[in-house]
Amino acid sequence: MGLSTGDWPASRPWRGSGTVAARTSGSLTRARPGQTCELDELTFLQALAGLPLIPEGVHLSVNASPALLMKPAFREDVLTSGLPLDRIVIEITEHARVPSYTDLHDALEPLRERGIRFAIDDTGAGYASLSHVLELHPDIIKLDRALINSLEQGRARRSLVTALVLLALDVGASVTGEGVETAGQLEAPTTLGVDQAQGYFLARPSTDPDTWQSWWAHQRGQPMAFPIAPGGATRRQLDDGLRSGSTPRGLN
Q: In which band, very low, low, confident or very high, does the pLDDT at 129 lie, cut at 50, 70 and 90?
């Protein structure tokens, strides 16, 4: 059992959200049967330990499976961590059915009461993610990258995203589009009511806390501004890229 990354999971910002997303799933290596939940827990807590390095006012988003969230010892570790829990977003993953949403809802309630918000990851990728939205009423719905990447291919996909945006309104959630890699993929979901975006077009993942600081410094006082990627596109270059449909230098 071991971790394949460096000190911290790779992280990236969301556009307009003041959030750094930790990719804990990328930190795992060859789990033997029965070890997946244990490794998920280790990488989750490792990401959590990086929260003090993130600028004040920025949230940390970390993946967790329903199986992990159902563990009382894990929830106790989070609740007694001494960290500002209102700066944490837990992205619920898992494409398998949940045995009991009542039990999962009850397990999440103490975390919610302490300020933790919940997102449903990969929404639209399958039945399980839609069930998570309907049963758990998350704070954030994250649209699967396959939906965002294919919006320009036909009306049916745009209709599906519109339906998910309306569902989000009904449950009181905001909507984030994942996997935005081009100007078109950023513009299309915005016209359909998607609130936030995440992807390589905005910034590359980074394990460097100094890079996280630069993301936040670039966004302060600039609502819905684009974060700077390591190496350097300016906000003007990003805006020009949107208008021309090209990827700005420093983000390709």
A: confident
In sequence order, the β-bridge partners of residue 11 are 22, 206
Residue carrying the six token digits 């970390």: 62
* DSSP reduced 3-state for 163: helix
Which token pair is 228? 């700077």
Q: How far is CA 25 from the centre of its chain?
A: 12
Per DSSP bridges, beta strands 11-13 and 88-92 are unpaired
Specify the pTM: 0.74
Residue 55: partners with Cβ closer than 8 Å, 6 or more residues away: 212, 213, 216, 217
- pLDDT value at residue 211: 77
Report yes or no: 143 and 164 within 8 Å, Cβ to Cβ.
Answer: yes
Sketch out the chain's domains with CATH numbers: 11-244 (3.20.20.450)
